[in-house]
Structures are given as structure tokens and as C-alpha cells.
Amino acid sequence: MNRVGLKRGDHVVLLIAVAIAVFCCIQIWLPRAEGETVVVTSPAGEKRYALAQDRTVTVQGEQDIVLTVEIVGGRARVRESRCPDQVCVNSGWLSQNGQVAACVPAGVSVRIVGEPVVDGVTA
Known about the structure:
Layout: H1 8-29, E1 37-42, E2 45-50, E3 55-60, E4 66-72, E5 75-81, H2 87-90, E6 100-103, E7 108-113
Antiparallel strand pairs: 1-2, 1-7, 3-4, 4-5, 6-7
């Protein structure tokens, strides 16, 4: 019986995989800054709205798909869309910097932007 253990290259690959897993976990659990602005990108261009001001915005996308974006209480969501899969609607409420909801068939995205969190690690 020929037993083959881990070789040097195997250790390198394992170490890289563990490092990537740790990095991903840190990114998931680090606090994010609250967003300040909703950026709605559509075929007609990009529009920005303050999260502090409640409003409802209607967005015309490709393929005659109309979306309703709701901004209430410092957060935003795609409340309604006439797209077939409803992924954008199921994305739920967005309030933190970097969160995105996208309607690919309509070519529309809704993202939250704000000041990045700067701490001792990122400074």
C-alpha cells in the first residue's frame, strides 16, 4: 500500500484557502456604516436621493419594466417591479453602505452609498 501525505504545494493551497475564508468572515461580520444616499441607476441615467427624506420613486427600465423604489425611515427597497423573477423585490430593505438590489431584466440597480468605515485596521 502506497500512502501519500500532503506535499509542500498542498500546504500552500490549504493555507491560501484558510486565509480567504477568514477574510470573507471578517468582511461579513465587520460593522458597516449607515448609508446616506440612494443611487438609482437605470437606462435613463443615474439619480441620487437622500435616505433622510421619505419618498417613492418610479423608475422606467428596459423591456418596459417599471419599478417602484420606496425610501422610508433611512432605508430603501424596490417595493414593486413588473419583472418576471422579482429578485430585486425580494432583496428587501437596504440601509447600509454598499448594499445593492438589482433588476437585471430592467437594467436597474438601487445601491446605498455613504462614508466608508475607517478603523485601526483600514487606516
